[in-house]
Specification:
This protein has 621 residues and is an all-alpha fold. The protein has four domains: 21-202; 206-393, no CATH class; 433-519, no CATH class; 523-556 and 574-621. 66% of the residues lie in helices and 2% in strands. It contains 23 helices and five strands. The strands form two sheets. It has a three-stranded antiparallel sheet with strand order 1-5-4. It has a two-stranded antiparallel sheet with strand order 2-3. A hairpin with a 4-residue loop joins strand 2 (68-71) and strand 3. The longest helix has 52 residues, at 336-387.
């Protein structure tokens, strides 16, 4: 209770002092108030559905004009009850969407006019201010449009189907539908404008936009056809009333079905065909009653048909035909209502036809605007080449490049589209498009993410035709190309430019990047292969020498200890022999070692490539 009283007090203060709570759209999402953002995607979808429901509503209302029908057997005007039930049910369902939209209007925030000076403005989320704004602007129109007056009239007739009710129902439907058509049409116009302002356009595709305006033209034809049918019934009723007044045995109530119980009806029924045929026939030439533009509906028995589909299609065709021709083939009578209807038809046809052609041309031109720009650019290029007297081979190269670029891009400047986006979004798009391509290069594979992002940010798409020299030897290198698709031939005799480019990278101090340089260098690969072979040969020979040394030592120790029982002369000579053999073995071992070292030096004849000094440029700068 306390919370509710505080809410009522805040609403009272807001209405009294005009104080409104305003937030930005991003803050509305975290707000506890159940207020909708006017630019919310769900609300935009609901607004589109509501516009469609409004179009369906103004399409269903003319169906009520088809309810009166002429009964040729009884010569009376009746109401088609099956069509009445169907049309009122459909209209009630559509009005439910209208009521839902009215409820959403009380919960949809709006941009405060005072906050539009800077930025996009703040949203007013005070429910009292929102309700006050809606009640002051569109509530009355929505309330009048959603009133179920036609349903009440028809349901009343269905429960009291007397003869006198046919005339009152027919007149009430004409008056009510015309009255409610004004607010229903007036509500579509601002809602459509608001949807275009928030969403940018009602239809995102060109074909949908063209079909949208074509639908309005067909809807106008449907409305004109329904009015033509109802006015034909009215002219038939006028002729019958005129004939009835000149006949003493006729009462006007006999002209409406449901009065069979009245006195004198049987007498009138027996004579009605002759009396009405003589006064209101459309077969004789000239007819006794000038029906004007409505004679076609009477002579074709359209007003007497209870088959709704055939009757609807015929009236729709009549409306579309005369709306497109601006009513030029209409032969009107002197009846003022008929003349006014014809004038309105011609004026409406002129306006709608101009709007249809203009809007459809605008939407359909958006499909071919790129092609037209290409044609203008190609014509300007041809005039320029002719003015500058370019040779034929250069002209062919220019034409071939323009044609190839058009086939690849269809006139869309991808770089300008990306550059118009915010920086973070542009970086993410560039990273998505180019990061995998850059990482395919071994040089950039091991670099850090920031440097890769900087490289991706500066990449631009480029196209080259066949037999195009991308860069020539001796030209300064000012760009790096990543070949995505195609065939490229590269021939060079110098690498000074590549050395200059490599020296500009300050991130190459990484040992892993240096190893990458060596791994993909042909000179380093050749030297590494030779170095490995020489090392293996040295290892093999050293191993063999060690094995021979162990064998020789084994032979030396295999002589055993000297016997002391030997006589003195033989003992001295034997010791000298042992020392001499050991000296010879050591001398031979030294000779073999020198020979192996000399052969190893002879194997490594290929010089080691000089390593790049990555710190020299840093010390100079």
């Amino acid at each position: 209770m306390k919370k509710g009283s505080e809410g009522l007090k805040s609403i009272g203060r807001s209405l009294r002092f005009g104080v409104s709570r305003a937030v930005f759209p991003e803050d509305l999402k975290v707000s506890e108030k159940k207020i909708f953002d006017p630019q919310d995607k769900i609300l935009l979808t609901l607004n589109k559905l509501f516009i469609i429901s409004c179009i369906l509503a103004v399409s269903v209302d003319p169906l009520l004009f088809y309810l009166p029908v002429v009964d040729l057997d009884s010569n009376c005007i009746d109401i088609d009850k099956n069509l009445a039930i169907t049309s009122t049910t459909v209209r009630t369902v559509i009005d439910v969407f209208y009521v839902i939209h009215m409820f959403l209007q009380f919960r949809t925030a709006y941009i405060a006019p005072s906050s539009r000076v800077f930025g996009r403005g703040e949203l007013v989320i005070d429910s009292a201010q929102i309700a006050k704004r809606y009640l002051r602007r569109y509530f009355i129109i929505d309330f009048l449009a959603v009133l179920p007056l036609p349903q009440i009239v028809i349901w009343r007739f269905l429960h009291r189907s007397n003869g006198s009710d046919v005339l009152s129902t027919k007149d009430a439907l004409l008056f009510i539908v015309l009255l409610q058509y004004i607010p229903r049409f007036l509500r579509i116009i601002p809602l459509n404008s608001e949807l275009k302002r928030t969403a940018g356009a009602f239809a995102e595709s060109a074909w949908a936009g063209a079909a949208y305006y074509l639908l309005w033209y067909i809807l106008a034809s449907h409305i004109i056809g329904a009015f033509w049918y109802l006015f034909a019934i009215e002219r038939e009723d006028t002729c019958w009333n005129s004939a009835c007044k000149s006949t003493p045995s006729c009462k006007t109530d006999f002209l409406y079905c449901g009065n069979q119980h009245m006195d004198g009806f049987e007498t009138w029924k027996n004579n009605s065909s002759v009396i009405l045929g003589n006064n209101c026939s459309t077969d004789s030439d000239p007819p006794p009653f000038d029906f004007g533009i409505f004679a076609q509906a009477l002579s074709s028995k359209t007003v007497a048909s209870r088959q709704f589909v055939s009757k609807f299609c015929y009236c729709l065709w009549w409306g579309l035909q005369n709306l497109s021709t601006l009513g030029q083939g209409l032969q009107t009578s002197t009846y003022s209502g008929e003349v006014i209807f014809s004038i309105a038809l011609a004026t409406l046809g002129l306006v709608l036809f101009a709007l249809l052609i203009g809007n459809m041309q605008t939407y359909l031109q958006s499909l071919t605007i790129r092609l037209e720009e290409m044609r203008v650019k190609r014509r300007d290029s041809e005039q320029w080449m002719h003015h500058r007297l370019l040779p034929q081979d250069l002209r062919e190269r220019v034409r071939r490049y323009d044609q190839y670029k058009w086939l690849e891009t269809r006139g869309v400047d991808e770089e300008s589209l990306v550059q118009s986006l915010p920086k973070d979004l542009r970086r993410d798009i560039k990273r998505h498009l180019c990061l995998a391509l850059v990482r395919r290069v071994p040089l950039f594979e091991n670099m850090d993410e920031r440097l890769l992002d900087a490289i991706c940010e500066r990449l631009k798409p480029s196209l080259y035709t066949e037999n195009t020299y991308i860069v020539r030897e001796g030209d300064p290198v000012d760009e790096m190309l990543f070949i995505i698709r195609g065939r490229l031939e590269s021939v060079t005799t110098d690498a000074e430019e590549l050395k200059f480019v490599a020296s500009q990278f300050r991130r190459l101090h990484s040992r892993q990047v240096q190893h990458t340089f060596r791994f993909y260098s042909q000179q380093w690969r050749t030297w590494a292969a030779c170095f490995i072979q020489a090392a293996w040969r040295r290892y093999s020979k050293r191993k063999n020498a060690e094995m021979r040394h162990r064998e020789e030592e084994g032979e030396d120790t295999g002589l055993g200890p000297v016997d002391n029982s030997v006589v003195g002369g033989s003992t001295a000579s034997l010791g000298a022999t042992i020392y001499a053999s050991r000296f010879a073995a050591n001398a031979l071992r030294g000779v073999h070692r020198l020979r192996n070292m000399k052969s190893a030096r002879e194997l490594v004849t290929l010089q080691k490539p000089p390593e790049p000094d990555f710190t020299a440029d840093d010390s100079e700068t």
